[in-house]
Amino acid sequence: FAAIYFNNDRDVYLTTSTGTPIWGPVTLPVGGISRTNAEIAASVTPSNYSYRPGDIMRYGATVDGTTDDYLAFSKALLSNGYVYSSKAGTCLIGTSIDMQTSTTLDLSGLKLIAKVQDWVSAGVVRAKSVDNVVIRGGWIDGQKASNSTGRVTGVDIRGATNVRVENVRVTNCPGLTSAGQHSGDGIYIGYDGSTVPENIVVSGCICDGNVRQGMSVVGVDGLTVTGSHFLGTTGSDPGAGIDLEADDVADTLRSITIAGNVFEGGYYGVIATTGAKHVAITGNTFRANRYHDV
């Protein structure tokens, strides 16, 4: 009969009855949860097996606000459908965290701060040509005060379908200029090449103190924005809470509902330019916008 043999180095072998190895060795982790099939398939090796799969702490996150935690998020999203942190705190991020198809990123208890650098309009969290994605909770900060020309976007949605952004706070995203040229959006929704995003929901979010827009929408087929606050957009080019503005008149920008939100302290509340079709703006509150509400 075959036997299982362990040595003092935590190596495990499958042997014959006479002790000849026929499989192995495989080194077992010290305590915790072994490497999962999904981690193996994604070529992801955990750093700390005492944390559960999907927890960014398992993949080397520090959550100390000074060490770049991008790689931990990336490994977690490549190998898990649900990603979160068991440790509350601040994560420095220096590269876009890319969502994968059929994943949920739960940022509850976390503040993500954008590394001081030129982001070239990239998002701290990005959903690019993926499907069935949820981004939930937490706080994303663009560090405008220390990176005034950094061209940061908080949440960047490009060519993705069936995306929900829920209860996320996005603040202080800078453009190239203080007026808001070239990025500086809390949330950006637009094309990935020729692929238009479809069925996007933004619910219960706060976009505060961003430079260009609380949210820019340059292409979408199906967008619902409810229960969100767009506050204190600082720029004037155009400086809206939400800007519905296609890059080209032939671009798709339709089937949009903006209901039950608060627009306060921007240059504009909502802008809907030529090309936006089937837009319903209803039941919103507008306060102290510097130029126009709608």
What does this 3D model show about the protein?
This protein has 294 residues and is mainly beta. The chain is built from two helices and 27 strands. The chain has helices at residues 37-41, 70-79, and strands at residues 3-6, 11-15, 21-27, 64-68, 82-83, 89-93, 97-98, 103-106, 110-114, 123-128, 131-136, 139-141, 153-158, 161-166, 169-171, 185-190, 198-203, 206-208, 213-217, 220-226, 229-231, 240-244, 253-259, 262-264, 268-272, 277-282, 285-287. The chain has a nine-stranded parallel sheet with strand order 4-6-9-12-15-18-21-24-27, with no helix packed on it. Strands 5-8-11-14-17-20-23-26 form an eight-stranded parallel sheet, covered by helices on one side. It has a seven-stranded parallel sheet with strand order 7-10-13-16-19-22-25. Strand 1 and strand 2 (11-15) form a beta hairpin. The radius of gyration is 23 Å and the shape is elongated.
How would you summarize the topology of this molecule?
Elements lengths: L2 E4 L4 E5 L5 E7 L9 H5 L22 E5 L1 H10 L2 E2 L5 E5 L3 E2 L4 E4 L3 E5 L8 E6 L2 E6 L2 E3 L11 E6 L2 E6 L2 E3 L13 E6 L7 E6 L2 E3 L4 E5 L2 E7 L2 E3 L8 E5 L8 E7 L2 E3 L3 E5 L4 E6 L2 E3 L7
